[in-house]
Amino acid sequence: MDLKRLARERGFSYSEFSNLMDIFIDVTKKDISLLERAIQENDMTAAGDAAHSLKGSAGNMGFPELAKAAKSAETYAKEGKSELVKQATMVIKEMFGSIVSTCRDMEST
Amino acid sequence: MENSKRQFTVLIVDDNLVNLKLLATTLDNYGYRTLTAIDGPTARKIAASEKPDLILLDIKMPGEDGFDVIRKLKKNPATSSIPVIFLSGMIELESKLTGFELGAVDYITKPFHPLEVLARVRLHLKLSIATNSLINNQADKLKQIMEAQTTMLTTPACQPNAKFGVYYRALEEAGGDFYEVLPISDDIYGYFVADFSGHDIKTSYLISSVKALLKQNCTPVYKPIESMNIINEVLIKILPEEKYLTACYASLNRRTRSMTIINAGHPPAVYQSVDGDSRFIMLDGDVLGGFDSVSFGEEEITVAPGDRIFLYSDGLVEPSQGKILWTKGSAKLLEACDAVRNEPIKTAPQQIVEKLSHDCPQCDDDVIVLGIEV
């Protein structure tokens, strides 16, 4: 994952994209927390809303795989399949962790 | 000089902070002033106070969703003309059509590329500028007309496919009422009845101008409400102070069997279904040419062959001698419409006037009754 290239492709300087990444990371952490809490409480409406939000921000930032995983979680939530929502959330967390690591690595270099 | 420095303002509305910041950064980078809102009520408040040139509006938001927001924006005269582009992950055709039906100019599906949004913002601002320029050009042309043209009245014989009948009586020194019948396509006709405020020598010139505007703007490209809004914007620029007109415009599509009624401060149209009683189509609306920001009454009704609609001027039910009040006059009008139900549409308007004239044998105002049959 090359964040500098992603920034360029989307018409941003790296500094601007880095600021956007900070917001994206904050918002996505909150969405994942909401998703996990919704799974615990078996509230599939709240889970679907959190996954919808995550899908939008990931897709618009240029992370299509993460957006796809969030879309799966949203679809499963709409269908009331809580176990599948849980599995999709694990995938989301793993992908998001990788994005955060890449971002932190870039910042430290 | 001023135009070259003009900064366009875009209001971005989305409950997702990432999307807000992403779009604001892109548009800021390309010289736009951006305003942001994370919910519908805040967006409407900002739109009314800041009058942005364009609004990017998310559909799925907690509380007031994007559809609710655009409905309220379009109802508010201060925000009704601001172009709105929807942003949404909803990709169903029905959702898109709903957006366009509610007045959106475009629809961008998420995930979006920021530069695609930028391109569409540019395109719609260009269109908006072009429309405003068109309005100014039309106003300039009309201002150059030095002599009033002879007001030609459209008769049923001129437009046999329009299926209408008309009664028109203009009294000396009181010529403020007029009507027009507009062929918009083979199956679509527009019918317009209006009354200018005040009676003076400029009126005939102004009537010619309004008729020219009707011909220019009542086309298949514009919805009836859009035609009236454009005409209003031109009239604002050409009408003298204190001059305005009340009007009722009916656009009838005989192919889809639908009729849209637009009311601009005019007495309500009478709708007579082929197998039912006559009733008024009550719509509140601002007058034409009176205000920059207007809200006209609008209703679309499904019609059937044989249904009739009557448009008329206030002289029919509210003669200025004041002997007949609207409430009484209106009840009599419905009775008169029902009484002539079996008359051909060409003669029905005259019969209506004859029935009502028993109550007011010495009426002192212009009278128009325009009857339309589906």
Report on the structure:
The complex is a heterodimer of chains A (109) and B (374). Chain A has 109 residues and is mainly alpha-helical. Chain A has a single domain, classed as HPT domain (Four Helix Bundle (Hemerythrin (Met), subunit A), Up-down Bundle). Chain A is 86% helix and 0% strand. Chain A is built from 5 helices and no strands. In chain A, α3 runs antiparallel to α4. The longest helix of chain A has 27 residues. Chain B is an alpha/beta fold and 374 residues long. Chain B folds into 2 domains: 138 residues, Response regulator (Rossmann fold); 214 residues, PPM-type phosphatase domain (Phosphatase 2c, domain 1, 4-Layer Sandwich), CATH 3.60.40. Chain B contains 9 helices and 15 strands. Chain B has a 5-stranded parallel beta sheet with strand order 2-1-3-4-5, with helices on both faces. In chain B, strands 6-15-14-11-12 form a 5-stranded antiparallel beta sheet, with helices on one face. In chain B, strands 7-8-9-10-13 form a 5-stranded antiparallel beta sheet, with helices on one face. In chain B, β9 and β10 form a beta hairpin. In chain B, α2 packs parallel to α3 and α8 crosses α9. The longest helix of chain B is centred in the middle third of the chain and has 30 residues. Classes of the chains: A mainly alpha (109), B alpha/beta (374). Chains A and B meet through α2 and α3 of A and α1 and α5 of B.
CATH H-level superfamily of chain A: HPT domain
Q: Count the E strands of chain B.
A: 15
Portion of residues in helices of chain B?
25-40%
Main CATH class of chain A: Mainly Alpha
Figure out the total of helices of chain A: 5
Helical content of chain A (DSSP H or I, runs of 4+): over 70%
Averaged pLDDT of chain A = 93
CATH domain topology of the largest domain in chain B: Phosphatase 2c, domain 1
